[in-house]
# Entry
Amino acid sequence: MNGLAGRRILLTREGEDCAAWAAELERLGAVPVRFPCIECREIDTPALRGRLAAELPRARWLAFTSRRGVAAFATLRKGGGTGPAPGPIPAPAAVPAEVKVAVVGPATAQAAAKTLGRTDLDGGPGGTAASLGAALAPMLAPRDRVLIAVAENAGRTLEAAIASAGADCARLDVYRTVPSPPAARKAASSTLGADNVFLASPSAVSGFVNRVRLDSAPGIFTIGPTTTAAARAAGLEVTGEAARPGLDGLVEAMRCAS
# Structure
């Protein structure tokens, strides 16, 4: 990820995620502009806590596709309440020893290790539900039960991989990604101090167009096909699409478009 000196990049993820990407871009010499266009909200209801309590003892594996899923799971296991991401779960609420923990990649593995105390399978640097599914499927025996804790708007890729291995899947939607609402007065893109925009989800696309009026032609870079489709449906001209997930994929797409 070289050649970023002076590149001004608008980051549209949730605030904490923007901060993590901004730090890395600054290290590489770019100029990040934080402009969160989404908010992540945990889903916490008595019904969901009850379902988790019923499903977890039946599970052979517990799978996460994001660190936010880990945090939301921990909140549910603690018995409710919203707010900042929880610390380590007290012993009575820990994941049972017989339930193995699978995660999508290094960041989620770090969150699981801190919050749950361990990770048994890391999907690796691919960092997608597909890469996690590919790593997890060979580990499953027929009729194993996998409990997945994911975003409400997450796709079905991981579930399909589990089903293809002959295992059973129970899905818990533990958080949702909410786009910024339409602004009464949108910001002009020319005033935002960036000439490139990174869009990492369809929700970020919605939040961006809700907040911004294009009066310039910034480079629009998307994290994958689903986000590209959402951007084009919203009337945005996509400059480049990441060939692999994460910040490095977006930077690579931007460099290729230069």
